[in-house]
Design a protein that fits this description.
4-stranded antiparallel beta sheet, Neuraminidase, mainly beta
């Protein structure tokens, strides 16, 4: 129902702590990953105001240093001991349940040896999982059984630079450069009888960062350069055969989503969320945030309730931000999340610069009415930056329910929910091969969570 790929705004990209592409292997930190607990007081590695030795899952570790390894199953948790002082924050996002893990499987390059950049995950009508892997001018699709077994895939070439991939039902929608100052939207069949590009529609424009499908329509954001050389966006709606239906200017934008019925479209960006009629583009409502809040992804909990996630700039740091609004005058809520108030402090820096930074880049509704948001938590030690993937489940009223923190350098990429209440998340990890410490490589996994 919505555009799911995680991306980061320019406002965030200027902070190296928050850019996944800047994540470095933290050998000293990764060496602290251990299934055994870290004694935060006796060895001097870390300490905090809640390190009382009775952490989640029975681990003697600070709450914000508990998470899961790649091979974890169920609610099995491990702990991490960075060799420095850490003080966990409190409040929303802390002291919750572990999201139960059914399995985690690796995403390999397809074809073997090809450029490896998984960007999207979706479900076919038969319940199988499909991952879209972006190449230089192609998208490869890799398929998995519901139990995580990989059973091959295929590649579609002939695209320009790919900007977004959205997988819905048995089709993928790809936005990409069209050449000569144009961008294009293409549909790709994913069923065994139509593994090919089905149609392509081209528009004059500079970018097309997001695409979504709902209610028998396809919508995307078309970036246009105005007379002052600023990038502004049109919301463009097509039918399922790629024929344009209508377009309307929406100003600054980063993401979009259809309501469950497909009758409404939410567009988020530029400090606000706007709701449009999918039939003709009429503006229904608008929710404006403060200037230090950056909504980045949006979804509908139902036809009236809209959920947005992103980041909140708190002086020198970013906190993850979530909010719910109602078109029908219902409850409105807003929360933020900070992992730690102190992380490897440098006596010469301000206390805020020694805290962590968090970001949420995508959100989807689940079958039981709750929602799942994905992103990452970043940290710094000795001028070396790292981050870990974070997945959080919460109610439509904003109540924190459960989460999963991956104890490796990486970030969450994309997510899709299944009708049975389970959810699949595409997760990245970064590291350095032993024989070439200057080469940063990247691994990807699909992780399935169960209700």
């Amino acid at each position: 129902m919505m555009k799911r790929r995680i991306e980061y705004p320019l406002a965030v990209a200027v902070f190296a702590t928050l850019v996944p592409g800047c994540l470095l292997k933290l050998d000293g930190l990764d060496a602290g990953l251990d299934d055994e607990s870290a004694d935060s007081d006796s060895d001097g590695n870390c300490n905090g105001d809640n390190g009382d030795g009775d952490g989640d899952g029975g681990l003697d570790a600070l709450e914000c240093l508990i998470g899961t390894e790649v091979d974890a199953l169920g609610v099995t948790q491990s702990s991490w001991a960075p060799p420095c002082e850490v003080t966990c924050a409190e409040g929303w996002g802390h002291d919750g349940d572990q999201l139960p893990i059914a399995w985690t499987t690796s995403v390999s390059a397809y074809p073997p040896g090809a450029h490896h950049n998984p960007r999207a995950i979706g479900l076919l009508d038969n319940g199988r999982v499909v991952v879209g892997i972006v190449g230089e001018q192609s998208v490869a699709f890799q398929f998995f059984q519901p139990d995580g077994v990989n059973f091959g895939g295929f590649e579609v070439a002939g695209f320009g630079r790919v900007q977004d991939v959205e997988i819905v039902s048995n089709r993928a929608y790809v936005t990409h450069d069209g050449g000569n100052g144009t961008v294009a939207v293409s549909a790709v069949g994913l069923s065994s009888s139509s593994e090919q590009e089905l149609w392509r529609t081209t528009f004059g424009g500079a970018s097309a960062p997001a695409v979504a499908r709902g209610g028998g329509k396809v919508a995307f954001l078309l970036g246009l350069v105005d007379q002052d050389d600023f990038l502004q966006y049109d919301l463009v709606v097509l039918d399922l055969d790629g024929a344009p239906l209508w377009s309307a200017p929406v100003g600054g934008a980063s993401n979009l989503a259809f309501s469950p019925s497909g009758e409404r479209i939410a567009v988020v960006g530029n400090h606000d969320t706007r709701i449009y009629e999918a039939e003709d583009g009429d503006l229904i409502d608008e929710f404006v945030t403060d200037s230090w809040i950056y909504p980045w992804a949006v979804t509908f909990a139902d036809e009236d309730r809209v959920i947005a996630v992103g980041g909140r700039l708190d002086l020198e740091r970013w906190d993850a931000w979530l909010a719910g609004d109602s078109l029908a005058g219902g409850s409105v809520w807003e929360v933020s999340y900070n992992r730690a108030t102190l992380w490897c402090p440098d006596p010469e820096d301000s206390p805020l610069s020694a805290s962590t930074a968090e970001w949420l880049g995508d959100v989807i509704p689940l079958a039981d009415g709750s929602l799942l948001a994905i992103g990452y938590e970043s940290h710094e030690q000795d001028d070396v930056y790292g981050g870990q993937p974070w997945v959080v489940r919460f109610s439509a009223e904003g109540e924190y329910l459960a989460s999963d923190r991956g104890l490796w350098n990486g970030y969450s990429v994309d997510t899709v929910a299944a009708p049975d209440g389970s959810v699949f998340v595409l997760i990245a990890g970064e590291g350095q091969p032993q024989d070439d410490p200057d080469l940063v490589i990247q691994d990807f996994w699909v992780r399935k969570y169960v209700p």
